[in-house]
Design goal:
The structure is a single chain. With about 220 residues, this protein is of the alpha/beta class. The protein has a single domain, classed as Spore Coat Polysaccharide Biosynthesis Protein SpsA, Chain A. The protein has 6 helices and 13 strands. α3 (about 80-95) packs across α5 (about 185-195). The longest helix is centred in the middle third of the chain and has 13 residues, at about 80-95.
Length: about 220
């Protein structure tokens, strides 16, 4: 399967200051390429279409950067809708089926995580398939793990795996969530309670490019 791709690019980039004082975080560069361009590379390599990027903070810069590319923009000019609200607003551009989502503030090495998710997706038993990285291998990550994984790859809250920022997820139940601004954690919790959320461990390197000191760590990972 080759589901559409949503790249989350609306955040304020607070942890990345001062680099984000005048530049949106997705346009911060690691090496000679911006985080957003690296995310788009993964999506194109995986054959995802359409590709949608949401915007808020300094969104005009992101729109200008994407001009002339085959990428749709879902603007959030007044309020950042968070990942859940942002994905729901973008659904008219993405369609009704499962959607791939990707956080651009991550650098990956090894297999394309989106291609790996596509290969591992089993629509008859999954409502969400999340790319994970063991916390011991999560470069520049601060904080505890997000999930534990059972022997059948079903996920539960709390454990030694970090959500790596890429997934395939069904969006049907977004319509039932009453809030306007909400995280995809709300949807995950509903799907976890139904036993329909699974994990896939990324077999390559991974770096959370969330703050300035992580940039040289990401570059070192890419340099191998």
């Amino acid at each position: 399967m080759r589901p559409p791709l949503m790249i989350f690019a609306a955040g304020l980039g607070t942890r990345m200051r001062p680099l984000t004082d005048n530049c949106p975080k997705p346009l911060v560069k690691v090496g000679d390429r911006s985080l957003l361009d690296r995310a788009l590379d993964l999506g194109r390599d995986a054959g995802c279409a359409p590709v949608v990027v949401n915007t808020h903070y300094l969104g005009d810069q992101i729109a200008a950067h994407l001009a002339g590319q085959d990428v749709a923009i879902s603007p959030e000019p007044d309020t950042i809708l968070d990942t859940g609200g942002g994905l729901r607003q973008a659904l008219p551009l993405l369609g009704d089926g499962p959607v791939t989502t990707l956080n651009p503030d991550v650098v990956w090495t090894g297999p394309n995580p989106l291609t790996a998710l596509q290969a591992a997706w089993e629509g008859d038993r999954m409502d969400a398939l999340l790319a994970l990285i063991p916390i011991a291998q999560a470069t520049a990550r601060k904080g505890a793990g997000d999930f534990g994984m059972g022997p059948d790859a079903r996920l539960h809250r709390k454990g030694d795996y970090v959500y790596a920022g890429a997934q395939i997820i069904r969006t049907d139940l977004l319509a039932d969530i009453p809030d306007t601004v909400f995280s995809l954690n709300v949807l995950w919790d509903i799907l976890i309670a139904r036993g329909r959320v699974f994990g896939m461990v990324h077999t390559g390197g991974w770096c959370d490019v969330g703050y300035p000191a992580a940039i040289p760590m990401a570059q070192a990972l890419l340099d191998g």
